[in-house]
Amino acid sequence: MNRILAMGNALVDIMTQLTDDSTLDNLQLPKGSMQLVDIKTSDDVREKTSHLHTHKASGGSAANTIRSLAMLGLKTGFIGKIGADKTGMFFKDDMIRTGVNPHLIESDIPSGCAVALVSPDSERTFATFLGAAAAMNPLEISEFIFDDYKFLHIEGYLVFNHELIEHALKIAKSKGLIVSMDMASFNVVEANLEFLVDMIIKYVDIVFANEEEAKALTGKSPEEALDNIAEWCDYAIVKVGENGSYIKHKNKVYKIDAIQSKPIDTTGAGDNYAAGFLFGLSQNWNLYKCGKTGSLLAGKVIEVLGTTMSDSVWNEIKTRVSNISLE
Length: 327
Hints:
Elements: E1 4-7, E2 11-17, H1 22-27, E3 34-36, H2 39-48, E4 54-59, H3 61-71, E5 76-83, H4 86-98, E6 100-107, E7 112-118, E8 124-129, E9 151-155, H5 162-174, E10 178-182, H6 186-191, H7 193-203, E11 206-210, H8 211-218, H9 222-230, E12 235-239, E13 245-249, E14 252-256, H10 269-282, H11 287-301, H12 311-322
Parallel strand pairs: 1-5, 1-9, 2-7, 3-8, 5-6, 9-10, 10-11, 11-12
Antiparallel strand pairs: 2-4, 7-8, 12-13, 13-14
């Protein structure tokens, strides 16, 4: 049984293509960051970008990862909280359509929404209203949900709720699950550094971080950060964009090249890398093939706006994955 359970913020992403970065300056949003906003600010951002091309999809870091794992054919589940509204129903329906078993808690609070502003160079900046997602509490998380799974994948954005994230990690470890955590935006890591490191050391087996997140976590360059993170957990993965990624396990380092692609929007690149890597690990592949599969998914998702890839793209991905050598 290699089922994977994810837990994260249940959000609906509104992908917005910018013509230039002046909009970010006007909205006072640092480029490349994830900023938490209230519902008034979220509505203001949406109003001021309403003239631009947009695309809506279920989102949130862990949700993106688990949807891609379902598309690869794994049995998956997702824990999150939504509002009893159209946005929440959109999220739930999208999970079910993709093949994910949704363990969703409903709330009177409006569902979360992330406005993703995509710059011409494909970098994305998030103005995120967490809404109901932020209202999830430990008492709502039944330990029996974890019984059907071998892995728990959790997003770093949940770190704003220390009690919740530690509760879930404790349950997972008590039931023998392999735990992976994808770091959040660098500013989120910086704001929760001591707690994150403590959680990794105590409960986490696999850590995913991009270059900026790894620096925020350790204060070091990618390769030095890799060594540092590998002291805290079994598998350390540091992604360095077009330069690929590094994986370290049991003192062995793997350098994985990025695939050639034509980037439109980098949203979901890291989430899909995690999906590819975890899929490979669930199949007992070696770490080279795990990393190459992660690199493939990351390279394909950045060629579309948002995180939803067509069936034809998924068919191509599956074919290419089957042809990746184990060497």
